[in-house]
Design goal:
The structure holds two protein chains of two kinds.
Chain A: E1 13-20, H1 27-34, E2 40-46, E3 64-77, E4 80-86, H2 95-101, E5 106-111, H3 120-128, E6 133-138, H4 148-155, E7 163-166, H5 171-197
Parallel strand pairs in A: 1-4, 1-5, 5-6, 6-7
Antiparallel strand pairs in A: 2-3, 3-4
Chain B: E1 59-62, H1 73-81, E2 86-87, H2 88-95, H3 99-111, E3 115-117, H4 126-137
Helix pairs in contact in B: 2-3
The chains are: A alpha/beta, B mainly alpha.
């Protein structure tokens, strides 16, 4: 008999949150502010025509593109790891998004009010794929403060999507954003469960 | 929408129309000495894993017995590293290989019974999400 009443074996679980937004918006800073590791991980993709070729002699003819991804890890407890993955902020690496986002708890879209349009692709993606997300308006010293309502209007997002201010350089602020996202995921799940049991 | 290039990125090889394979002296040499091999060389040219369901955060558990299996260099490293569970991305960092390469290698090891992965949770249980929230707040 296990000492624990639930008898659960302590198998580690890994959960992932995706950090998105345009180039230079602070994804690397955001991940670095809270991660216990500091690596970048790379991904390489081959061109379509080489997929499925098993003959190593043809490898020389393949085209690889390498992209660096932000990647962070937080050990939440003995058996719970939280991974943060930054999405590459460029259209031509869109093929990586499905892989990165698959199975994610949710997503954080970072936004620079001087370049709102940079986050449109990310917002579209998470809306289309029904991924819970929130918008974090990263505080840049030079940027004039926007009213969060204005930001929301400019983005044209669902009123239920949280829009919050954050400072990607500050650990406490980043922590707050992660908590807000988990709250948002919980809210959505409870709402769904409630809707499902209403009749 | 036009995003500025990420400066950390290696410039892409020209990927427009199917260019004739005119691979003159490598036009795009690796930036450092850590990438002498084209990444997918170590996978025998394969780019798709045998086993679907390996995500970047999927934890890989190696079987202790795998340590004595006759494995090639990269596969052996994976089996050694994963004596304590490691995510695919952790292994990619340790091996200095792209995620896709590690996926292919890890999938082979799963198929051969040297690595074990947990079943993917379809939808995360509520209790787990609550635990995540509580633990993050206690950080």
């Amino acid at each position: 008999m296990s000492a624990h009443s639930d008898g659960a074996v302590l198998t580690p679980v890994a959960v992932k949150i995706v950090i998105s937004g345009g180039f230079g918006v602070g994804k690397t800073t955001f991940v670095g502010a809270i991660s216990e590791i500091e690596p970048l991980v790379t991904e390489a993709e081959l061109t379509e025509r080489s997929v499925g070729v098993d003959d190593t002699s043809s490898v020389r003819g393949k085209t690889t593109t390498t992209v660096a991804l932000d990647f962070g890890r937080i050990t939440l407890d003995d058996a719970l790891l939280l991974y943060l993955f930054g999405t590459p902020g460029q259209d031509r690496f869109a093929f990586l998004w499905d892989d990165l986002v698959d199975g994610a708890l949710g997503a954080i879209v970072l936004l620079d009010t001087r370049r709102l349009e940079d986050c449109f692709a990310a917002v579209d993606y998470f809306e289309d794929h029904d991924i819970p997300f929130l918008v974090g308006v990263n505080a840049f010293d030079q940027a004039r403060r926007f009213d969060l309502g204005e930001v929301r209007d400019a983005l044209g997002i669902d009123p239920r999507v949280p829009v919050i201010e954050c400072d990607a350089r500050r650990r406490e602020s980043v922590k707050g954003v992660l908590m807000a996202l988990t709250e948002e995921v919980l809210t959505q799940r409870l709402a769904k469960a409630h809707a499902g049991s209403a009749w | 929408m036009s995003w500025a290039p990420d400066p950390r990125m290696i410039p892409p090889a020209p990927t427009t129309t199917p260019a004739p394979p005119t691979l003159a002296p490598d036009p795009d040499p690796p930036p450092s000495d850590e990438m002498f091999l084209r990444p997918f060389m170590v996978t025998g040219g394969r780019t798709r894993p045998l086993h679907d369901g390996l995500r970047v955060e999927t934890l890989l558990h190696a079987m202790p017995a795998a340590l004595s299996a006759p494995l090639r260099f990269e596969a052996r490293r994976i089996v050694e590293l994963c004596q304590t569970p490691q995510a695919v991305a952790d292994v990619a960092v340790a091996l200095r290989q792209p995620l896709g390469v590690v996926r292919v290698l890890a999938a082979d090891l799963v198929a051969e019974g040297h690595l074990r992965i947990e079943d993917q949770l379809g939808e995360l249980p509520l209790a787990l999400i609550e635990r995540i929230r509580d633990r993050v707040s206690a950080l």
